[in-house]
Amino acid sequence: MKDYHISKHNSFYTIGLNYKKADAKIRGKFSLNELAIDSLLIQAKGQGIDGLLVTSTCNRTELYGFAQHPFQLIKLLCDNTLGTVEEFQEVAYVYKNNDAISHLFKVGTGLDSQILGDFEIISQLRQSFNRSKKLEIANPFIERLCNSVIQASKKIKNETEISSGATSVSFASVQYIMRNVPEISTKNILLFGTGKIGRNTCENLIKHTANSHITLINRTKDKAEKIAGKFNLVVKDYGDLQTEIRNTDVLIVATGAQSPTISKELIYTKKPLLILDLSIPKNVSDDVTELPNVTLIHLDHLSQMTDETLEKRKQFIPEAEAIIEQIKEEFIQWLETRKFAPVIKALKKKLKVMKDEELNFQSKKLSDFNSVQADIVSERIIQKITKQFANHLKGDDIDADNSLALIQKVFQLEVESK
C-alpha cells in the first residue's frame, strides 16, 4: 500500500474473530462496547495509526486498519477487551491488503453473516466509520472503502433476492418460538431489553404471532414506553423483573450488558419456560438450565437454523458476488489513481509557479495588462493540462511508473512523500 500515498504504514489489515471458529463465550471476551471502541481508537491514534475502523457485533469483532505489522492491531484489541493474545490466536484470522478489502466487502454485504443476507451489519459499519471520522482516524482510503461497501450492499439488496424472507437473528428467534411453542398467540411473552435487536424482535413477534400478551422491561423505562406506545404493549418497571419472569412462558433477553443479567436465582416457575438469549456477551447465566422446565436457547443455536428461506437465498450468491466484483474493481481503479496523485499535485504546483512568474513579468511590461483576466485563463489552462496528464496515467495500456518518472524529470518536480 505504500505506493498509494494513503498511509505512512505499508499495509492494510483486517484482524478479527467471528462465529465460525469463536463460540459465544470467546466472542464475549473480545466484544467492545462504544466506550471501549472510542478508547481503542484514541489509543491507536496516539500510537501513530492513521486509518482504523472497528466493528463489534454479536457475531464478530474486527479491526480494519493500516499498520506496520498486524500484531499492532491485535494488541490494541486485547488491551481493550478481556481476551488474551493466546485466545485470539486460537480462533482468529488476519487478512492483508486485497484480501482485507475483499473480506470487508463480504462482511458488509451479508455474505459472511451468520444468517446469509443479514444486512443489519451495514448500519453498524456506517456507525463505525462515523466514529472513526469523529476521532479523526479515518483517512481517505477508509472513507472510500466504506462508501464502496455501502454502495455494494444497497445494490445487492435492491437487485437480488438474497435478503428475501428472514434477514436477522431477531426474525430467526421468532421463527424458533413459533415452531417450538404451541398456541403461541395465547402465551405470555416477556421482552427484557429494548435496544435494536429487542425492537426488531418485538416487531417480528407482533407481525407473525398475533400475540397481544407481550410485556416490555428495560433498565431505562422511557425507552420501553416508546416502543410500547407504538404497539399498545404493557411496560413494567425493572424492579418487577422477577415477578414477570414467574408469570411468563417465553423470556427474550437482549439487554446488551457485559455480564449476565438473568441468573438461576431470579427464576421460580412451575410451568415450561423458554429463554432466548440474543446477546453477546451472554446475558443469561448457563446455570438456568439446572432448573426443571427451563429451556435456554442462545443466538448461536438460532443462527444455525437452515430453512427453505436460507436455501433459496444461496441461489443468489453468484449475483451478489458479481456486484461486489464490479464495485470492488471501481474502488481498486480509484486506488490506482492515488499512485500518481502526488505527481499531479506537484505538476499543478509547478505550473502555477510558472504562471505567477509570467503574469508578474507581463504586468510590468504592459501598462494595460489585465492581470485578473489573464489569471482566469491561465488557471483554466493549468486545469486542462493536469487533467490531460491524469487521464493519460489512467490508461490501461500505459506504463504509469515510466510515465510518472518522465513527468517528474521533464518538469523537475519535487514530489512530497507521505
Q: What keywords describe this structure?
A:
4-stranded antiparallel beta sheet, 418 residues, single chain, alpha/beta
Provide a descriptive summary of the structure in words.
By secondary structure, the protein is of the alpha/beta class. Helices cover 53% and strands 12% of the residues. The chain has 16 helices and ten strands. The protein has a six-stranded parallel β-sheet, with helices on both faces. It has a four-stranded antiparallel β-sheet with strand order 2-3-1-4, with helices on both faces. Strand 5, helix 9 and strand 6 form a beta-alpha-beta unit. The longest helix has 49 residues, at 317-365. The termini are close together.
Write the layout of secondary structure elements.
Blueprint: E1 11-18, H1 24-29, H2 34-46, E2 52-56, E3 60-67, H3 70-79, H4 85-91, E4 93-96, H5 98-108, H6 120-134, H7 140-159, H8 169-180, E5 189-192, H9 196-209, E6 214-217, H10 221-231, E7 234-235, H11 241-247, E8 250-253, E9 273-277, E10 294-298, H12 299-303, H13 308-314, H14 317-365, H15 371-394, H16 400-411
Parallel strand pairs: 5-6, 5-8, 6-7, 8-9, 9-10
Antiparallel strand pairs: 1-3, 1-4, 2-3
GO molecular function, one term: NADP binding
Protein name: Glutamyl-tRNA reductase
Site (Important for activity): 103
